[in-house]
Amino acid sequence: MLGFLRKRTEELLASLTNIFVKANVNPNVISLVALLLAIISASFYYFKIIFLAVLFLLISGFLDMIDGMVARAGNRESKLGNVLDSTLDRYADFLPILAIGLAGMANWIFVTIAIFGSLIPSYVRAKLEINIESKKIKAKSVIGERADRIILLILASLIYPLYKESFDIAFLLIFILGNFAVILRLWYNIESLK
Fold first, then answer.
1. Model pTM?
2. Rounded distance, CA 42 to CA 54, Å?
3. How many angstroms from the chain centroid is the CA of residue 120?
4. pLDDT at 38
5. Terminal Cα-to-Cα distance of the chain (whole angstroms)
């Protein structure tokens, strides 16, 4: 969903990115703060304080978009930053889903498949980046990416007070979209992998 809008979103956030660059903010610090906010969000989910969970999840996701932009705009891209960002993102994906399960707001079957559905697209993308020259990878941005997962979590959070199975449905969608992203990425890059 949002992966297709990433370029437009980055254009809109360029001025904010420049503020971070001019302030000489290390993009790795932004990644760490995004993880910290995801941990806080997960804590609020665990205690069923949904409004604050959503607020911190939104800010975490926003910072996740900004960190890479700051790295590129400030010429501070590095292999360490790339690996750190991807690794911290996986924790930021995993923790709110786990907290929702621990809080009893979702069935554990759905929690499990959501975790799988959130991890597998990133794994496949990473494997493609190892095996294909980065500029030649097709379908880098597809449906089922982190921004899409955050939107599904937020929508489920807003609906939860009215419909208690909202997280189960969102988690099922995360699983389906995540695996759809894997299929798309493999399909579009199969020739490059031969």
1. 0.89
2. 9
3. 12
4. 98
5. 29
pLDDT tens-digit profile of 142-187? 788 888 999 999 999 999 999 999 999 999 999 999 999 999 989 9
Six token digits for residue 94: 């995993």
Residues 6+ apart with CB under 8 A from 79: none
CATH 3.40.50.10860: does it fit domain 2-193?
no
d(Cα 47, Cα 84) in Å, to the nearest integer? 29
Q: Decide if pLDDT at 70 tops 70.
A: yes
Classify 24 in phi/psi space as left (phi over 0), alpha (psi -120 to 50) or beta.
Answer: left
* Reported confidence tier of residue 125, pLDDT bands at 50, 70, 90: confident
| Residue found by looking up tokens 């370029």 in the block | 7
Domain ranges of the chain: 2-193
Return the number of other C-beta atoms located less than 10 Å from residue 189's C-beta: 21
Cα dist from 119 to 10, 74, 192, whole Å: 24, 29, 23
What does 121-157 look like in DSSP terms, one character per residue? HHHHHHHHHHHS-GGG-S-SS-TTSHHHHHHHHHHHH
Residue 22 and residue 106: Cα distance in Å, rounded? 43
Single-letter amino acid code for the residue at 53: A
